[in-house]
Amino acid sequence: PDITDKWPTILTETLTGYSIPLPVLKKCTTPNVYAYYYDKGRTDIAYRRQEYPQMGKPYMSGIGGAANWHNYMNPVDWALGLWVIDQSKKPNGASPLQQQYDYVQLWLDHTWGFKKTDSGLFPDYNFLYLPDNRYEIFSYCAQARSYPAGRQTNVGGAFVDQQIFSTYGDKHPGHSAQFLESISERWLYWTHLLTDCEIRCMNISGGSTVP
Fold it and tell me: pTM of the predicted model, to two decimals?
């Protein structure tokens, strides 16, 4: 689902109580390549001549590589609420200082594309296209319309179920358990992980048991 109209509300709720000024959010101006992932983006001129193409299919459609997919999420995760800031600032918001990313139309053939400019003594530029440059496009260029998977309910697709860990709360410590709490304090998460992944635990007698 497209949550871009909720970005200001999400950010306000996330930062309440932290005495952090609300940053200015940019509008969503890049094509939705996550919902419309097109693996002929470099070669199909008809696709590239559309500013906001709707060709292709969701990026994770038909994904494999695992027997089962499980979505472990917290719908009020603090850090994943701040994630909308990075999405708003794209293209270029989270990029290294020596690089500039833009979404532009080429005047020569009237096609659209993500442009990467390397600054320095001799500035250079190139264009990024799907599928070759998808990871760089996802990281620095294309604004995501949804929550990150760790905060998004009902992901569907390859995911067979979801476990909601809202008990971990909406404050910063709830996101950083690996640094702030012990394994025993997060027993609920590890119990689900061991069970869902069918990992057997070794007991003190040398046998094994399912948690």
Answer: 0.82
